[in-house]
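Notebook, p. 212. Picked up where the previous page left off. The plan for this session was modest: take the two constructs that came back from the sequencing core last week, fold each one, and keep the raw output in the notebook itself so nobody has to go hunting through shared drives later. Recording the first one now, exactly as returned: residue sequence, then the structure token string.
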Amino acid sequence: MASSSSSAPGGYYARHIFFCLNERTNGEDSCARHNAQAGFDHCKSRVKKEGLAGAGKVRVNKAGCLDRCAGGPVAVVYPEAVWYSFVDTADIDEIVESHLKNGQVVERLVLPPDVGR
């Protein structure tokens, strides 16, 4: 699927990005401790600004623990099931522009498959 503006076969959205916003209170590391909320807020704002939000397009969602804490903060884009780790708003901008808008995975931000909790 090359563009998020194309229809979503079998689904309501062409792409769905979930941001882990989990905060552990037991002292363990978690995405919330790495500005995950700011990444989510920025992504949601950019998706709306770019006109990518809505049916047949992109949905930005909060998620609880995605169990990949060691790579946090993390987000995952479906239907491609691409896991990202990000540092700042520039990384989020690149994910929005490259992946959510144009269907191109941002390889430098892909979370290695062996990173877990």
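Okay, moving on. Second construct, recorded in the same format:
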Amino acid sequence: MRPTALKSWARTRGGDVAVLQLGGASGLQTVELADSPVEAGDTVTAVGDAGGDGGTLTSASGTVTDERTSITVTDEQTGQRSRLRRLIEVDADVVSGDSGGALTNDSGQVVGMTVAASSGGADIAGYAIPIVRVLRVLDQVLSGDAAGGVSIGYDAFLGVTMGTGLQLVDVVDGSAAESAGLSAGDTLTALGSRRVSTQAELRRAVTSHSPGEEVTVSWQDADGSAHSATVTLGRAPVA
């Protein structure tokens, strides 16, 4: 049966692991998890939705080149940088859309969850969180423990799309931003008590609140005039 609704979710803010609860998802085939860690030289396959087009699953095979490495990643939307540690490094051709997919061994057992890939070079390196760590996050979430960077529930949502800097290129229909009167060409300057000058600062400002909270949003229009309005933040989509 095809899943029809997302009911709830939780994630780690620094670990890129999310736990989803789906409605209408009974009868799905489960995966088999590996009971031993990978070693350098092991053959692995990254399975995912290469390109993120929602089409047929794809796979990319390679070998483990490091069982425990750390990388700095950059959010493609906000430019925010963060450090991910204790990852499996593989020489498989991992691309956008594979993130969140399974990394399997040569027996088809899941050994990790793909989380990132290198860019800017001819040789691609993929990175995955070991499955034992993914399971630890799962256990923590299911027990309702929000400690250690785990966030249970949805982030707040303003409803804007930006190009360069904080100038808007689009506003989501029915969002808090639309209710405030924001439109393409406006430039955000503050949210609540926080002045913002980068997309990363805006993201932190929004996620410091909860869905349903009232905040003041401030901006300049294309003519340079200043505006502000009080809005009720919505609930962020997971995708």
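Notes on construct two before I forget. The radius of gyration is 20 Å.
Flagging for discussion at group meeting.
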